[in-house]
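Appendix C reproduces, verbatim, an entry submitted by the partner laboratory led by Prof. M.T., so that reviewers can inspect both the input and the predicted structure.
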Amino acid sequence: MDQKKVFYTWQIIPSTLGDMGLVWREDESFSPICRILLPEAGLSMAGKIRDIFPDAVPKIREQDRICKQILDFLVEKAVHFSLEDLDIRSLKGFARRVLLAAAEIPRGRVMTYGGLSESVGVPGGARAVGNVMAGNPFPLVIPCHRVIRSGGGIGGFGGGLAMKRRLLEWEGVVFDAQGRVPPKYLYAGKR
């Protein structure tokens, strides 16, 4: 049996939010992004990538459509991401349904963890949705920053709450005096 060795490349994109890491799974015909990494205080992005993908090598890919879109997004341009550039084959079951539904939340709108849970047919699954959002391998492209707590609280985010708030503000979401998202920004999902 001829087994192909999986080969990964990566690139770091500097931004005002910190360094973002993109990792591609290289293939002869198609090289999808398999991971987008957000900055973490005290960790270098190159070190973070090497910890997760020890054999990956750096490669500049700024001409890739998804790379250009992320660069545009990080300078506050409105971007409509395509999931075609992502390696979503590893997403299964509930996590796949949740992440694909989260990808449908429009720019400038938010959805609650509970609302997202209901939209995929699992009422009462807000905590499970939160766990899926925490493990989202494609933040920014699959906009987990647009998922908030019921009552308008911002909830968690892998890049930190300040980054989540900033991303939402870039997209036009205005917070009230208590730091909550007003109901007018809620997205009810596709009907």
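The chain has a mean pLDDT of 91. Additional entries are available on request from the coordinating office.
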